[in-house]
Specification:
Elements: H1 2-40, H2 44-53, H3 60-75, H4 80-100, H5 106-122, H6 124-129
Helix pairs in contact: 1-3, 1-5, 3-4, 4-5
């Protein structure tokens, strides 16, 4: 009987961890999708701010497609780890852009951390690869 309630407790914990991980995935995914849409639609504020960041306006659409593609790959469960790796590179570029011009980069760093934390919570292979001690 004790084993059954222990197994049920682990299943309930696993269910809550998985739900938490999906909610944590939704936060950076929503931000990245919004950012990609703004680039693809050439949002006037973004077009105005691109030169300040050192990016020509002509590359915004290409950046938007890259951002959208990486985020979609991240949102598909079977390719989520590949998407996280790609988004890590994308966030690294965003951080480098902000560091180069002397602006804060905490938002980009937090997005990257949330991307990996969410995956770590639901992916047992990542827990084995990156154990917390």
């Amino acid at each position: 009987m004790a084993q059954t309630s222990e197994a049920q407790g682990q299943a309930a914990t696993g269910k809550w961890l998985r739900l938490t991980s999906y909610l944590l995935s939704a936060l950076p995914a929503a931000a990245l999708l919004l950012s990609a849409i703004m680039k693809l639609t050439r949002n006037p504020q973004l077009v105005e701010g691109a030169p300040h960041l050192g990016w020509p306006v002509e590359v915004l659409v290409a950046l938007g497609f890259v951002e959208l593609g990486c985020t979609v790959i991240y949102l598909i469960p079977r390719t989520a780890i590949l998407g996280a790796v790609l988004l890590t590179g994308y966030m690294g570029g965003a951080i480098a852009t902000h560091v180069r011009i002397g602006e804060p980069f905490l938002a980009q760093l937090l997005l990257g951390v949330l991307i990996w934390l969410a995956l770590w919570l639901r992916e047992p292979r990542l827990k084995a690869l990156l154990p917390l001690r």
